[in-house]
């Protein structure tokens, strides 16, 4: 699924390579072909790998505050660059802390390689500290990680490391994560150095297949001057297939909708862009699909989050085609399963070869969901997002967290030109954006803006410390309504609303962050003008910056299920 090889950076090999090196040295050499950063948290049973990183100048080791944060850094790095994200952690609790983040990478098919230290093999089952060997009475790390990965292997012999690495990297680049469990004695063991250090093999996809006959017939049977709608999903970014998608859109003269986690798949300011589908989407999307003669799902299997409100429209469309690696969740009339870029090139050639001339269905202005008027304190979502959009320069990447804040960003924010947009909708884990923003910024080498709520900040927001430690160009924007606001909204909309378990005692997050990190530029905004002023000042900052925005916990976001109930 992931290209992973487009920007391959060869590892730097010392001219005085020792006759023998450790397994950890070999690991560092191999992963340097696929990445330039390793994210993690140290510990006794992974320290040999970090020692090897010190000897490998092509790799930069980043120490996070928590293993969840480190794994989301690797995830964000991989999504933003289409290269391999690598996370390293020690055994026991450190290893277990990876699990929640790896479930997101698993569900979203992100190529992450997790290198997880284990106690020495000689002490397994003999009372070793943090023993997860699976011996009687011990947790089994291999079984645990197998459940959240595409590939998991415990390396018990030094001579097996080369083949194990090849298999793990190949599995990850096919849509990971992959996990290697590495006992400490194995990491420290010596392996012979080859006369000429070999680069890790490239894992190329199979030869490009032709479009299935049923797909070709469906496209050819679409009447001339027909209305065509393309729904682009997250696989477009994963396959780095934006250019191929654009070619198909031109060939079909199509209107483009995107899923909530694929906002950067197509330029948001182009006339053909018609907005977002799903629970955070735009109300006219079902009409566009229902009125089309052909709807092409491109890397969009359409989970419930993405297809909410579309089932009837898809049923009404006479021709629904699907291109992508995953099994679609909706009925289609034809599908081309496999590498997305190849399928898109085949579709574009077919459309051009048939001299197809569609009729673009101009959506006009993108209509927004109407939300109830809020009367509480703070700045409203819509003007806050508008201020953010106005402050984002071309090329800026945006990471949004789960919750009411994320819904507002998905619905209202247009992604900057040449920018990336990431949101964790696989598992929807709160706090993902803080680590992912750091990984994205380091991978892309440009400014990233993280937008999250205070609930997400309290979970994993102290990765801000990691951004400060490494001078990462990330602007953290925290919408503070002193609540788990989406849970508050659910209490109000679906239940009596006479109680709340989800409102917090007021916290001055901006002031707290400023006190902890005196060198970090930090602002607190209580009005829209103060927010705009803070955004303007933050643009001059080379490293990290932090903005707290006060908002209303009772404001209902542009989230279709809430609006359907609240307006009923």
Task: Report on this structure.
There is one protein chain. With 568 residues, the protein is an alpha/beta fold. Helix content is 36%, strand content 16%. The chain contains 24 helices and 20 strands. The strands form 4 sheets. A 6-stranded parallel β-sheet has the order 3-2-4-5-7-6, sandwiched between helices. Strands 11-10-9-12-13-14 form a 6-stranded parallel β-sheet, with helices on both faces. Strands 16-15-17-18-20-19 form a 6-stranded parallel β-sheet, with helices on both faces. β15, α17 and β16 (421-423) form a beta-alpha-beta unit. α3 crosses α18 (432-444). It is globular, with a radius of gyration of 24 Å.
List the helices and strands and how they pair.
Layout: E1 20-22, H1 23-31, E2 37-40, H2 47-54, E3 60-63, H3 67-81, E4 85-89, H4 93-96, H5 99-107, E5 112-118, H6 141-146, E6 151-154, H7 161-173, E7 178-183, H8 184-188, E8 190-192, H9 213-220, E9 228-232, H10 235-238, H11 242-252, E10 255-258, E11 273-276, H12 285-291, E12 294-298, H13 304-307, H14 311-316, E13 320-324, E14 334-337, H15 340-353, H16 381-391, E15 397-400, H17 404-412, E16 421-423, H18 432-444, E17 448-453, H19 454-460, H20 464-469, E18 474-480, H21 485-494, H22 509-516, E19 522-525, H23 528-538, E20 545-550, H24 560-566
Parallel strand pairs: 2-3, 2-4, 4-5, 5-7, 6-7, 9-10, 9-12, 10-11, 12-13, 13-14, 15-16, 15-17, 17-18, 18-20, 19-20
Antiparallel strand pairs: 1-8
């Amino acid at each position: 699924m992931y290209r992973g090889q487009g920007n391959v950076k060869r590892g730097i090999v010392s001219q005085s390579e020792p006759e023998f090196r450790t397994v950890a040295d070999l690991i560092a050499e191999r992963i340097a072909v696929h990445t330039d950063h390793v994210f993690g948290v140290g510990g006794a049973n992974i320290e040999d790998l970090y020692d090897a990183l010190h000897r490998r100048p092509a790799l930069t080791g980043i120490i996070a505050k928590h293993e969840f944060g480190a794994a989301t850094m690797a995830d964000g790095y991989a999504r933003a660059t289409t290269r391999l994200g690598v996370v390293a952690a020690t055994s026991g609790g450190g290893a277990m802390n990876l699990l929640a983040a790896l479930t997101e990478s698993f569900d979203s098919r992100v190529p992450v390689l997790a290198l997880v230290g284990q106690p020495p093999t000689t002490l397994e089952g003999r009372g070793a500290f943090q023993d997860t060997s699976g011996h009687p009475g011990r947790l089994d790390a291999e079984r645990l990680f197998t459940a959240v990965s595409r590939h998991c292997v415990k390396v018990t012999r030094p001579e097996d490391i080369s083949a194990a690495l090849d298999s793990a990297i190949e599995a990850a680049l096919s849509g990971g994560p992959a996990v290697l469990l590495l006992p400490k004695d194995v990491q420290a063991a010596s392996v012979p150095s080859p006369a000429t250090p070999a680069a890790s093999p490239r894992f190329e996809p199979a030869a490009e297949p032709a479009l299935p006959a049923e797909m070709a017939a469906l496209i050819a049977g679409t009447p001339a001057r027909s209305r065509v709608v393309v729904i682009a999903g997250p696989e477009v970014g994963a396959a780095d297939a934006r250019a191929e998608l654009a070619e198909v859109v031109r060939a079909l003269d199509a209107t483009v909708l995107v899923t909530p986690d694929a906002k950067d798949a197509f330029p948001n300011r182009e006339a053909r862009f018609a907005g977002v589908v799903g629970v955070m989407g735009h109300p006219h999307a079902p009409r566009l699909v229902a009125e089309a003669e052909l709807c092409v799902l491109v890397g969009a299997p359409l989970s419930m989050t993405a297809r909410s409100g579309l089932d009837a429209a898809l049923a009404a469309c006479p021709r629904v085609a699907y291109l992508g690696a995953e099994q679609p969740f909706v009925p289609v009339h034809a599908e081309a399963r496999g590498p997305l870029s190849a399928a898109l090139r085949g579709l574009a050639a077919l459309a051009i070869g048939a001299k197809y001339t569609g009729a673009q269905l101009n959506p006009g202005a993108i209509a927004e969901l109407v939300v109830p008027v809020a009367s509480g304190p703070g700045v409203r979502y819509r003007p806050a997002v508008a201020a953010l959009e106005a402050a984002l320069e071309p090329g800026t990447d945006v990471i949004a967290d789960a919750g009411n804040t994320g819904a507002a960003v998905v619905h209202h924010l247009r992604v900057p030109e040449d920018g990336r947009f990431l949101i964790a909708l696989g598992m929807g884990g709160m706090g993902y954006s803080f680590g992912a923003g750091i990984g994205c910024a380091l991978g892309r080498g440009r400014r990233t803006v993280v937008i999250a709520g205070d609930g997400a900040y309290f979970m994993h927001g102290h990765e801000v410390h990691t951004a400060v430690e490494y001078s990462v160009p990330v602007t953290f924007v925290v919408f503070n309504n002193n609540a788990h606001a989406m849970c508050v909204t659910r209490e109000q909309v679906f239940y009596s609303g006479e109680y709340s378990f989800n409102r917090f005692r007021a916290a001055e997050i901006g002031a707290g962050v400023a006190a902890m990190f005196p060198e970090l530029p930090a602002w607190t905004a209580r009005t829209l003008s103060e927010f705009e002023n803070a955004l303007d000042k933050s643009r001059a900052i080379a490293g990290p910056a932090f903005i707290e925005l006060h908002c209303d916990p009772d404001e209902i976001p542009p989230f279709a299920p809430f609006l359907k109930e609240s307006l009923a």
